[in-house]
Amino acid sequence: MSAAKQLLDHKLLKSLSPLCDLTPDMLTELSAKSRVEQAVKGATVFKRGDRDHRTLYLLSGKLELTDANGKRSVLAANTPAARQPLDGGLPRSLTAVAKSAVTLLNVDTSLLEMLLNWGKDQSYQVSHLETEDEDEDWMSRFLQSKVFLRLRAENIQAMMMRMQEVPAKAGAVVIRQDDNDDNYYIIAKGRAQVSRRAAPGAPPMKLAILGAGTGFGEEALISNGTRNATVTMLDDGVLMRLGKEDFIQLLVEPILQRVAYDKACTMRGSDIEWLDVRKLSEYAAGSLEGARNIPLGELRLGLRKLNKLHKYIVFGNGENRAAAAAFLLSQQGLECYVLADGLQGVPRAALVEVANAEPEPLPEPTAPDNVVSLAPADEGRVEALMHKAKSRVQQEMRRTQAAE
User: Quick check: 105 and 8 in contact, CB under 8 A?
Assistant: First the structure.
């Protein structure tokens, strides 16, 4: 298959899903790192079982798709189905052969996942309001998250009261890619930029602008991992900071549902799916029969391929990554369970070898830079802001009780 150097304009990219969810800056970055490829009639685009980390779209021509049972179908360009990625799951469940000369868009899956990871459900603008209105505005935006619909109002109140207000100057680095940090943050005032280096020494790539009411930093806290991006203040602003222990206790644990392996086995059915969120190399070494593999780092992209009517039993080697994945799924309204103790609680005889799996390349660590410290805020202002937060939470509690 030969590469055709062709300018990818935003109009083309915006016509495809999920590229249509990206900001103009993200589309520009994606366009520069994607390419258009051509294949002659009869060429095999990919085979069932392949793991090539490409997100492909059919731009012109026709493809013949064959499933595991030998059933064949034809996909034509410029149809609603062609606006979706070609057999996006890994490993590939279909074999695709060019039924005519075809043109394909080749997008790097890791890059797309990273852009979607920071582009979805983020706030890109912040209104310049007076301090009192802005304090209430960030709380209102934050409490609109789907996660809070599953929490008791008492948990929300306790979380608000345990937060610490932290002033942050423009240019201050709140969290650094690949660093460890034991806090969850919410922007109360100002804006922050999310960026990431794709490789050591590479220039930082802008992923998103976060506004008031936006929380960040949860994934690394739940999975006990390192930060996957850098967040830098664009304006002089104020952050609300919640410690890891309080975040897990008040926000994460109440919404997680755990299930033992024996119990999970009895839940098998057409609407039950096993979801392995380990890295591909771990998955290849052995997994549960019939389990689908979407590594935690690719889960935001994989969300678009999950059936919201299904229930998911999420697992890893232990519980950390599975808990982070379950929290992410819950944010999107999916019903899921964390396999208690992960594969450590599963009989070895239940693990099966995974065919046609290839190791996943691991990114090199980014060299650390100096981080601007964030000083504690004035106690009087913290007390005033917490009083307002308490009032807002009490209003939410009354609404919840009235609804019940």
Answer: yes
Q: What is the pLDDT of residues 24-76, one digit of tens each?
A: 777 877 887 788 889 999 999 999 888 777 889 999 999 999 988 999 999 99
Q: Residue 259 pairs with which residues in a beta bridge?
A: 339
DSSP symbol at 176: -
Cα–Cα distance, 392 to 69 (Å, whole number): 57
Q: Quote the number of domains for the chain.
A: 3
Alpha-carbon distance of 125 to 128, in angstroms, equals 10
> Nearest 5 degrees, angle CA 218-CA 120-CA 306?
90
DSSP 320-363: HHHHHHHHHHHHTT-EEEEETTGGGGS-GGGEEPPTT--PPPPP
Residue 159 and residue 98 in one domain = no
Instruction: Over range 337-341, report the average pLDDT.
Output: 93
Phi-psi label, residue 87: left if phi above 0, alpha if psi -120 to 50, beta otherwise: left
In total, the chain counts a number of residues equal to 404
Are residues 148 and 237 both part of a single domain?
yes
